Amino acid sequence: MDLLDFIFPKKCVNCGAWGKYVCEKCEVGLWEEEQICPTCRQASRYGLRHSYCRQPWGMEGLTCLWAYEGIARKLIKQAKYKLYYDYLSELLSSLSLSLRAEYSFFRRFLEEKPVVVPVPLWPKREKERGFNQAEVIARLFASRNSLLLNRNLLLRVKDTGRQVGRTREERLKAMEGAFQFKIFNLKFKIPEAVLLVDDVWTTGATMNECAKVLRQAGVRKVWGLVLAR
Ligand SMILES: [Zn+2]
Ligand SMILES: [Zn+2]
User: Fold this and answer.
1) What distance in angstroms lies between residue 61's CA and the mean position of ligand 2's atoms?
2) What is the DSSP letter of 115?
3) Is pLDDT larger for residue 194 or for residue 34?
4) Residues forming a β-bridge with 62
5) Which of 37, 84, 181, 210 is the most buried (most CB within 10 A)?
6) What pTM value is reported for the model?
7) Of the bound ligands, which one is closest to the alpha carbon of residue 55?
């Protein structure tokens, strides 16, 4: 037990038992998500984009760690409103990444040393909330995998409002032109590969728009990572 555990003892988010954020009894309520193609959103092994789904500015693949229900949903929702970064860290457990065959292509992508880029929040919203959850996840992931993080590569230049309640078409429309690639200076080298990170995948409108902007700026490969779908 480290000092932090002593000062802030862990409690199961589901049943309240002391010791862990998700106790062994409740762990069965955490489902691993099946992987999908980031373009057509149909099942795809390893999260790879289907060869017949090639589109000029798409993502190479997408890795979803958990199903957005039950315990995972509770953890992510609570982490959004309280500063429970540890919850996110729990969901990002490196164990699940290293063992599952589903992640083999994702691991191969990581060997290319992609720059880790979080999906940015609208600045006003980030100020209200105090942090960007996608950035917290990106930061944790980058440090655990010794990758570079660049939180400023993408800028959110349009307030897209809340996406809840909108159809997929409406979401896609709202996202158009919402992001910009930031060139720092003339010497700035555009990364070859980017790992784009968000907390939850709903329709993919946001991530696909970010991927498009990155690819159009000259990034050769973009892979998406979300905690849950
Ligand atoms: Zn429990
Ligand atoms: Zn597809």
Assistant:
1) 10
2) E
3) 194
4) 224
5) 210
6) 0.89
7) 2
